[in-house]
Amino acid sequence: MKLRIFVLLLVSLISFNILQAQKHNHDAVIVGHVVSEGEHLPFANIAIKGTTIGTTTDETGHYQLVNVPIGEITVVASMLGYKSSEITITTKEDETKEIKFELEIDPLGLNEVVVTGNRQQTNRKASSVIVTTVSPKLFSNVQANTLSEGLNFAPGLRMENNCQNCGFSQIRMNGMEGPYSQILINSRPIFSGLAGVYGLELIPANMIERVEIIRGGGSALYGSNAIAGVINLILKDPITNSYEIGTNVENIGIGVKNSGKPAQDYSVNFNTSLVSRNHKTGLSLYGFYRDRAPFDANNDDFSEIAKLNNNTLGARFYHRFTNKDKLTLDFFNIKESRRGGNKFETVEHETDITEGVKHNITSGSVNYEHFINTHDIWSVYLSGQKVNRDSYYGAEQSLKDYGNSTDFTYAVGSQYNAHFGSMFKLVTGVEWNGGKLKDIKKGYPDFENAIINPDSTITINHTENMLIADQVSNTVGAFAQFDVQLDKLLISLGARFDHFEVKDTGYTHENKTGNVLSPRLSLKYDIVKNLQARVSYSQGYRSPQIFDEDLHIETSGSRQVLHKNDPNLTKETSHGFLASLNYNKTWGTTGIDVLIEGFYTLLKNPFANEFGEPDENGVVTYTRVNAEKGAYVSGVNLELKYIPIKNIDINLGFTVQQSLYEEEQDFDEKRFFRTPNDYGYLSMNWEVTPSFGFSTTANYTGKMLIPYFGIDLPNPDEGILRESKTFFDMGIKLHYNLKFTTSKMQIFAGVKNIFNSYQDDFDTGVSRDPGYTYGPMLPRTIYAGVKIGNLL
Question: Do 605 and 542 meet the contact criterion of CB atoms below 8 Å apart?
């Protein structure tokens, strides 16, 4: 009912503004061009501050704005890689004015506009918290098919594979596992726990405009599960008439000893956008197709990399009703199937092992923005995501392990951004997040209780579906953040109040409710012009609900691993502290940016696993409980960006940390499992000529503790806990551009994991431990491809 009322109000609001839009058009026109160092800049953004009016320069760097407001207005020119410029003029009816913009190069991207730090547009250097961005250029350098392949190249982040069968993966931020990070799509928390099981490998890279990352607690603005940080996926916007289509072929496992034959990974993607001549309406479309064969790394006829097929289609639409109003609609659908194990040519229940799932994910959102004045913006939004997943997690020709999971999540809210002169800013809003998750095991033929009829026929009954989880969660929250700029000191003080309710009619049959106040304080001080110091404190929480890993089942011929929450599980809270020094300086087209960031997060009532013993059916239960004492994660992130000359950029990052429980857990160990104490990355891109370019990337992963629960220990003297070796995963890519009259073509080729720094002790056979997997997600892989477009 609440949702219907909100939709009705939103439709009424939009209808009112459509009527208001029927006004006399002023024939005031602005024309001009944008240049930098004597060269015209194509596709630069031109906007009138405090309105939704905007356009882009054409291929020649020229632009035109029609029917602009009458009176004093401020026109802004901006482009990625350049400092924005503002010019204030006075317009008159039936008059044309010309404005020429000279943009200064911003090699470090310090003036890049981000939104995740405080839920409003701010350039990175002025933000009270450190915001790291992952750009399409980085995704291109590593030849990332999906989001997961690009997230290793940000400080404090590390992607990991958690299942040898199906490739269940998660992102760790500052040493904490996946559910401690909040995944947002266009700043909305609709990425459900069910989608999150395989979600980072589900999302194609070509649908993402950029990824914004904040380390440290973000609960004061974004709600629960933002203890480690926030990862915000900004989808592509239609800004000009454009198109791009590309294809890529990869061969996984080239030259890897003692492995099966190499596996082919084939993908096709496209992007296009159309914008009306007056730039009031725009539409972008994107699509992705991927087909990956399974790969057997140790030649035991069981896959280490799952078979995968992905079909994605999405769109983004905007329309400006007036100069002050803008409506944006987003939609995408992902259909993905994946399967790991053996005997891929047969149905699942005739194999020795299969972990397989089929996803149908549909996401949509509507966002309405209204400028109150030049700086103040009011917005209302509605976002939702529906996931339907058919699964089979079974072994030894079992018919009992088919399942179906459904999940619907939504976010409804309103936000107001206000400016009070140049000193004060306020962001405030209300938000209602909810979800409904249902997980069942499907019934199966009961051969053991078959009935022999008098006529010698056999009647086989089917068991009924078994309800595993039926959970409804609701969180109603209100948030506010107040920024005060006092000369060189910026103070950001925020808080969020949440009331959460988790109804579980599946396993525990209990309701969990609670009220949580999450404060947040950030200080930024400009020590000198090019050196900023930042400190922050934040408090976060995780409610006792079902998480991603609970919806994944590890399967082997000897056992199954299930996850559940203890009936007495209570919320987990955190206290996070961050302190950083950031030095940045540019000299023309040269620049350097150095970040030293220390972090400390204290966890109260932290979630921990108790490992059960196999029952008579070989089922092992991992029970999530609250550890009696706390835990903490501490460390230092280091980041260096260096632009020695215009056509070369180098990025380095390294993390040193420790993650410990205050008292020993299972196996008499305080350390977090699967968490190395040091890891880092490198990326370097060199545009040698306008036609030829070269890039190299690398990831380093230090030693970590990995539990082994298999039957046949490869080295019995090592015990259950194993310490992994270090890995250095390096890749290289070459590309060559061909220019035509209105389009460009790029031909590229490269190698991932050149030195095949890859796990070499995978467990084998039908009774293997599928959770005993670590290190880089791909062995040595070669690839080649081509893309064509007008904006390459």
Answer: no
